[in-house]
Amino acid sequence: MLRRSISTSMMRLPLIRGMSTSSNLTKIIFQLDYHISSQFAGLLVAQEEGLYHAAGVEVELIPPVTPGQEPKSVLNAYAGRSPDEDALYLGCCEQNVLVPAITADRSPVVAVSTMLHGSPLALASLSGTAAAETLAQGSVYGLRIGVQPDCTQLLGQLLELEVGDAGVTMVEIERGGKFDALSSGTIDAVQIYTTTEAIEFEAALGVPPVTLPFGALAPKDTGLSVENVLGSAQVVFMPREQAACEKSKAPLDAFLKATYDGWQLALKDTRKTANLVQSLSNPEALPTTLGQMTEEDYHHRVLLELQPFIQPHGADIGRVSVQEWVRSCQVLEEIGMCRGRRPSLWQTALSSTLLLPSSPIAGATSEALDGRASAKEWQQETFELSQKTAVVLGRRPKLKIIRLGDTTAEATKRAGLFIPDDMSWFSKVKAGAAVGVDVEEVTVAEHDLEALHSIVLDADCDPSVDAFILERPTVTEDALEGDHSARQVTKSAILEAAASLSSVGKDVDGATDAALGHAWSLASQRTGVTSNRMGAAHVAPTVAGMLRLLDRAGLQDLTGKLAVVVGRSHLVGSPIAASLVARDATVIVTHSRTASLSDLTLQADIVIVAAGGAGLLTPEMISRDTLVVNVGTTLDSQGPCLRPDVEQGDDQKEQGIVVTPSPGGVGSLCCAALFHNVVQAAAATAALTHNGGGRASQQKGSGAGDRIRDGCTADEPTLDLAQTAELVDAYEPGLADWSVGELYDGCLSLNRSFTCRDFQAA
Predict the structure, then answer these.
(1) Which of 153-157, 577-581, 646-650 bottoms out in mean pLDDT, i.e. has the lowest?
(2) What is the DSSP letter of 554?
(3) pTM (2 decimals)?
(4) Which residues belong to any copy of the SsuA/THI5-like domain (predicted)?
(5) 121-217 — its CATH code?
(6) Domain residues of the chain, as ranges?
């Protein structure tokens, strides 16, 4: 076969199909970490099929340099560019090479993608030997191991961790001498790449070698597979300065898209691709011990071995798993590969990967994140439904507020700050009146737990009360400094009272353990929690408000997104995490004891800040193109204003960072969400009343488990599953929205929100 000649100096990928270069094409200068071979099949096919030309880019390759010097080579080329040059400078190498290189000399480069997930590094011994039996048992003790110079440090660190200094003898050996050294018995095992050298050994010997992945020698409790412990085998990186430049994004994305489209085509017809690779590959990259195997068959086998590394478990080609990346960096640090200082994960983290789903902030416009406008819409919906339920019940929906201690002073300070009273969480009587809900307020002495318990039970059994919430004053850290017990008593009192509630239908604040447990149950079932309802339980108002904003921004599906939640409280942080998991996001929950918070927030696509610490996150803790949702606020002691956990700034806009307004964001929706929940609770009672249950009545029993509601008796519930099915047919044929379950004491509930159409006959 005719082999196309490629020079050994900087080279342009060979022009195919008679295409000519154009001054309109953006040049991509790409540093290789190995000779042209099957591991670059995506680039070769992209060029062969004209994908780069169509994408407006032209690719030139820098031949491989000494392993580990790739970042320095790219930075030198970038520094030597002409002032008017618009070329992008990229390179590739293994993650276990890139991270130590950055750590050692603080190279200002950043990874943007990965062409090979996982690492094919392994130890190999000839089948049938004692050394092979040792490897098969997952051990290396007592072996003489040949290793290439560029892998000596990595293997040495792993072996020291596994067996100590005296357990293994390492012998440096060049790639071309591995087979002979192993065959002659000079060494017992040798470091190989399973995607290439294992094929060579099998071709020469007729049987595959026995192998042990490098990852099997790494720390065991990493949560990663042995293939992924040491990270990606081929990471694409570029100068950090250039990655931060806005004009780099379009050509970078164009190059990545064309490259991974090339990989898709390469994997569709591996025989054709093998033929192309053979015609372009460097003779230096070809093995000398193929036996009866042809070069084309060899390249074909390599492509088949590469496929699971290119597209593992159905994942998008080129997509970096942030969690795996971070954990692999930590493993490299643990085994001593990153000396001097811990690597900044941002320096070696994903900057821009085209094949991740569209940016999480794509729909997060200022209009979509306007909490006040959304709250008004929600209030109108709630008011209309409230009117319908009032007709059926013969009374207005009612909320009972049970306050533990006097919250008047704080409410007075906060009421009316930047939001009208009829929308304010701190003016619930007026806000309730605006949507047709009566509000009753009761105050209990802060430490009178017996009275609190009694009032909670009475409210739970009172048929005229549709919903209630528990409130306590916000105790500042200064007030409780040195008095941990006061904080714990107050907190325990509320949790104990909340835990005594058996009817989650009245818990419109999502305070019960049952409500939080139900949220996580839905998350584990991948059942999307909406801002309206999650089965029989209500979504906590703050969480519902946040979800309403995400809905308006078109972010119902968060598949592939990394969300970092700052705060783990029972009412906010924990249920927020559950709701995001239910939307298929990958969620990390942080808190006051989380070390290196910025290492996590800098990786996130979405940051939810619910800690209540003014200015908790500073600009340098948030990366480009991130959506930041302000949930926590702090009342400024110096003046009548609320301060968010993350301040907004013009520099954030320039970096594509979107921060929800505060005030005017999530907070504006909390009150609307609360009264939405109240009217939903009333609607559940009205639905039973309207459908044959009679006027809702409840009898107080001897305990929480004995309380009976909605006209039921212990022996004869008002509704059974057959009657429920009839209601489905009567109200919404073909849609199984209604459910009755013993878990909720026979209460009727919707798996969606009640709407006015459910009461058209009222």
Answers:
(1) 646-650
(2) T
(3) 0.53
(4) 38-269
(5) 3.40.190.10
(6) 11-117+231-334, 121-217, 371-669
